[in-house]
Amino acid sequence: MTEIKREELLNQLRKMIEKGYTSLKMITAIDRKEHIEVVYLLYSYNHNKHNVVSVILDPNNLEIDSVIGIYKSADWYERELSEMFGIKIKGRKIKRLLLEEWNGTTYPLRKDYVWGSTYKVR
Amino acid sequence: MPRMKINVGPIHPSTHGVLRLIVDVEGDTIMDVEPHIGFLHRGVEKLMETRMYMQNPSYTEKLDYVAPMGWDDLYVSAVESAIGVEVSEPAQYARMILLELQRIASHLLWLGTLANDLGQMFTVFMWAFRERAKVLKLLEDVTGSRMFYVNFRLGGLSSELPIDFEDRTLALMDYLEEHVREYTYHLDSNPIFMERTKNIGVLTKKNAIDYGVTGPVARASGIDFDARKELSYYMYKKIKFNTPVLSNGDCYDRYKIRFIEIQESINIIRACVQKMPKGSVKGAPIKLIGQPAKIDNIIIQHRELPRGEGIIYLVPEAQRPYRIALRSPSYINLSVLPYLSKGAKYADLFAILGSLDVVMAEIDK
């Protein structure tokens, strides 16, 4: 597991490709309350090894570079990140994927969104 | 040729769930496909954060209603590694047998519906369902329910296996081996089926790696990866089996590879029944969860599901998951559809979609 700074992401992933990690299996994020952690799960077919690259994002500045130029499989995961966590993806135009009719102000997988809070007893 | 947009779905018999496609066609040729998903989104990842660990398998099972046991296994084994529970050897073999039975049932359903999509109206479909019903009957007698089992417990299964389980399983394998072979007469020697699958929707090896597809779709494109073998969990390392790899990456290869996988699963089940040691397969009751999970110990669990590689990224808290991220294989396999169908004929779209074997409940989560 390697933790890197936001600016190093693209360079780090390019380095990982050179090391043989040619497949991006999954991108996800974890809301740790004081920050949001974005996780890239990579796999190398040659060495049969998984590797995790994680980036810590400041909640006041949720922006991350798009990695779609390096891994094509990032497409749907980045769209998911943007609507579930409200993370801005730099370098590409994001079209809604899963929650087309969801409001644009709350992000369901963040911890400040409490499950069931949109309903009340009348 | 006039260019126009055609709306397909969200309710359409060939989309295997609730999938909407906006197809941009010029005459009969597809220029672009835009999938719209999310109609079945129910927020499983968020829901699971609100429940205790062993309340969750019933959510994970509904992710893939064609092969629920695979997700059951993936989730329960992730919790087992978070809490630190060992699975006894007989229970590992029993789980392998059940999982392979589930894989066969899943592939049979897929085979029937693909043949249906491609104009083999209901012959192969009925046969495949006849065989699948027999597999489900066996699973029902083991678990108590026909489709959603919630059968895995920490350290084993919910109950012991039936007395005549071994004999019935072996008899069923003989039956399946004989009958599954019959399908080839109807599909491989059918010129219409061949025309509609050969060289349609070709996914090259390089693109298969780039797009991150897994499972039978990847293996049909020449990627030799099977989590059962490469990441050897349970007792798969003690059993000899082949993971078929084909190289063309067209619809026909994706059909063929699942067909060979059914036969391989039959071999695995036979070997498991033979090697299964005596002993209890029962796990801990749901109430006895034991010690709380180790916090700050991130679990990444991999399993070879019938549709590809399923991954759970689990950040544990003492009594319930803090965050649980699911990688469903169909999600990524479906994202290749626009690339695969570009330049194909409109009628081929459903051959390609059918050959990817997607389950929408798993995609929308």
Report on the architecture of this protein.
The complex is a heterodimer of chains A (122) and B (365). The longest helix of chain A has 12 residues, at 74-85. Chain A has one domain (2-90): NADH:ubiquinone oxidoreductase Nqo5 subunit (Beta Polymerase, domain 2). Chain A is elongated. Chain A contains two helices and six strands, in the order βαββββαβ. By secondary structure, chain A is α/β, with parallel strands linked by helices. Chain A has a four-stranded mixed β-sheet. The mean pLDDT of chain A is 86. Chain B has 365 residues and is α+β, with helices and mostly antiparallel strands. Chain B has a single domain (3-364), classed as Orthogonal Bundle (Cytochrome-c3 Hydrogenase, chain B), CATH 1.10.645. In chain B, 47% of the residues lie in helices and 13% in strands. Chain B has 15 helices and eight strands. Chain B has helices at 44-49, 57-61, 68-83, 89-117, 123-143, 165-187, 191-197, 205-211, 216-219, 227-230, 251-275, 329-335, 337-341, 348-356, 360-364; strands spanning 3-8, 20-26, 29-36, 152-153, 156-157, 299-305, 308-316, 321-327. A three-stranded antiparallel β-sheet of chain B has the order 1-2-3. A three-stranded antiparallel β-sheet of chain B has the order 6-7-8. In chain B, strands 4-5 form a two-stranded antiparallel ribbon. The A-B interface holds A 22-26, 28, 30-31, 39, 41, 45, 48, 50, 52, 71-73, 75-76, 97-100, 108-109, 113, 115 and B 36-38, 41, 43, 45-47, 49-50, 207, 209-212, 214, 223-225, 230-231, 300, 302, 309, 311, 313, 315, 322-323, 325, 327, 331-332, 335, 364-365.
Features:
heterodimer, A: 122 residues, alpha/beta, Beta Polymerase, domain 2, 4-stranded mixed β-sheet, two-stranded parallel ribbon, 2 helices, 30% strand, elongated, B: 365 residues, alpha+beta, Cytochrome-c3 Hydrogenase, chain B, 3-stranded antiparallel β-sheet, 47% helix, globular
